[in-house]
Specification:
With about 110 residues, this protein is mostly helical. It has five helices and no strands. The longest helix has 27 residues.
Length: about 110
C-alpha cells in the first residue's frame, strides 16, 4: 500500500488497514507521519503495544480480518496445484516469522519481525 493511499483514511481506518496487511506495528507511526505530530506518533507507538488500548484493538481487528480474507482466498484456490504449493509456502513463512519473532523478543536472536 502506497503512503498516498492513507490520505483518504482516518487514523483509525489506517490502523485497521495496516493490521489487515500485517504491517509491522513499529512502522505505522511513520506511515501516519503526515496525520500525526511527533508527540502523537510516540503515543501511537506506545498504544499499539498496549493490549488495553483502542489502537491495539483496531490493529488486532484488522489483522484478524486480513488473515480471514487470505484464508478464504486461498481456500478458493485449493483445487489448483500451484495454489496448494503457495498455501504450503505461506504457512511455512508464517511459522518462520513467528519463531523468529519469539527468538527476538525472548533472546534478542533471529530477525526482528
Amino acid at each position: 500500500m502506497a503512503k498516498k493511499d492513507f490520505k483518504h483514511l482516518t487514523v483509525e481506518q489506517a490502523i485497521v488497514r495496516c493490521g489487515e496487511l500485517l504491517i509491522e506495528k513499529a512502522n505505522i507511526p511513520l506511515l501516519l507521519a503526515d496525520k500525526l505530530n511527533r508527540k502523537e506518533q510516540i503515543a501511537l507507538a506506545r498504544n499499539l503495544s498496549s493490549p488495553n488500548s483502542e489502537e491495539y484493538m483496531l490493529y488486532a481487528k484488522g489483522a484478524a480480518n486480513g488473515e480471514l480474507d487470505t484464508a478464504i482466498k486461498l481456500s478458493n484456490l485449493v483445487g489448483n496445484p500451484k495454489a496448494k504449493d503457495a498455501f504450503k509456502n505461506l504457512n511455512e513463512e508464517r511459522r518462520r516469522q513467528a519463531i523468529n519473532k519469539k527468538l527476538h523478543e525472548n533472546f534478542g536472536l533471529g530477525e526482528d519481525i
